[in-house]
Amino acid sequence: MFRLATAVLFLALPLAAQQSPTPGPASPFTLNPLNVPTITPGQITLMELEGRFQQDVDQGGGKAFSTWFAEDAIALNNGKPATMGRASIAASAQWNPAEYQLHWTPQGAQMGPSNDMGFTWGHYTSSWKGADGKPVVTQGRYITVWKKVRDGSWKVALDASADDVPNAGDCCTLPKP
After folding, report:
1. DSSP per position, 89-134
2. Which of 28, 32, 39, 98 is the most buried (most CB within 10 A)?
């Protein structure tokens, strides 16, 4: 019995190290073959990428955000025109993490059959202080398409997000007489 417990512990330690880092202390995200037996190596790769991407953005803000994009990447955000190319994405991602915070939690991943392209999806929260000094928070969904580039590294090919719909009555109420 001791040998079985030792073997399980020995196998679990490297897998625990594969868990993707997550934003914030309350995140429920822990993904590995021990707690999700159907997870594939490709899904683990993509979720680990998301975790490292999130950590870099937490520390470096917009500058760090743009470094994760491929040269020919596209960003689609909340009804705005598409931002084409890493240089344009970098020019539009000029936020300081002390003033604007962007956190996301991946909820799933799927790797393509050739293992050189896949996508992740999940939920994001952004927060900052409005012009009146009060906190502003938006939440929504995102999808990130990842591709392996020539040097073997992974880059974001497409990042798309959309804010959650407003709560019932928040957007379309008329003033009462």
Report:
1. HHHH----TTTEEEEEEEEEEEE-TTSSEEEEEEEEEEEEE-TTS-
2. 32
Give the mean pLDDT per block of 10 residues along the chain (177 residues). Answer: 33 34 40 70 94 96 97 92 96 95 95 97 95 94 97 97 78 62
Q: Cα 34 vs. chain centroid, distance in angstroms?
A: 22
Across the strands, what pairs with 127? 101, 137
User: 12 and 24 in contact (C-beta within 8 Å)?
Assistant: no
Question: Which tokens sit at 29?
Answer: 């995200």
Q: How wide is the angle at C-alpha 119 spanned by C-alphas 99 and 19, nearest 5°?
A: 70
Amino acid at 23: P
| pTM higher than 0.85 | no
* Torsions phi, psi for 54 (to 5 deg): -60, -45
Could you say which DSSP state residue 170 is in? S
